[in-house]
Amino acid sequence: MKLYDLEPSGNCYKVRLFAALTGIKLELEAVDFLAGMHKQSPVIDLNPWGELPVLVDGEISLRDSHAILIYLAKRYASADWYGETAAEQAEIQQWLATSANEIQHGPGAARLVDKFGYDLDKGRALGTASRVLGLLESHLSNNRWLACDRPTIADCAVMPYVALAWEGGITLDDYPAIQHWIGRIKALPGFIPMSGL
Prior knowledge:
Layout: E1 2-5, H1 10-22, E2 27-30, H2 43-46, E3 54-57, E4 60-63, H3 65-76, H4 86-116, H5 122-140, H6 153-163, H7 176-186
Parallel strand pairs: 1-2
Antiparallel strand pairs: 1-3, 3-4
Helix pairs in contact: 1-3, 1-6, 4-5, 4-6, 5-7
Keywords: Transferase
GO molecular function: transferase activity
InterPro entries: Glutathione-S-Trfase_C-like, Glutathione-S-Trfase_C_sf, Glutathione_S-Trfase, Glutathione_S-Trfase_N, GST_C, Thioredoxin-like_sf
């Protein structure tokens, strides 16, 4: 099973982290993003969007980190990671949506501006980040994990860009529950870091 990967990408890290936590073996294929290799074969053939990560498992090729997390959880991990009931899966899915929307366009976008020089609206990103971090802090003040009272792919999806918020000029000093939650994830057996964490 091969993952077309970019080390500083939080989306790629979500997949690497989940695989490490569950003992799933991945062959990492580093993609030279600056050289535009994500827009060339074989990556563009596997994902016409030209984005990373891309997972290839035999005849199956998947784009989008959240789709990959669901696939790996359902096919290779225990049911705890994605849940067995419709209610559990929906609870997890709502956090995947938060990751793809508010987290990506808040702390994720602020990081793209500061760390990589993207031409995005930093003020808007900071406003989105403030709102979502407040909501996340409130949730984690009463819950140890995002969903189902246990670690799930929701935690793997949301944590990276929250933990990397400092690279977008966002401090987590006012969010102790978020900091404790990040610490719990880092304490899970099999945890692997990425640059910036």
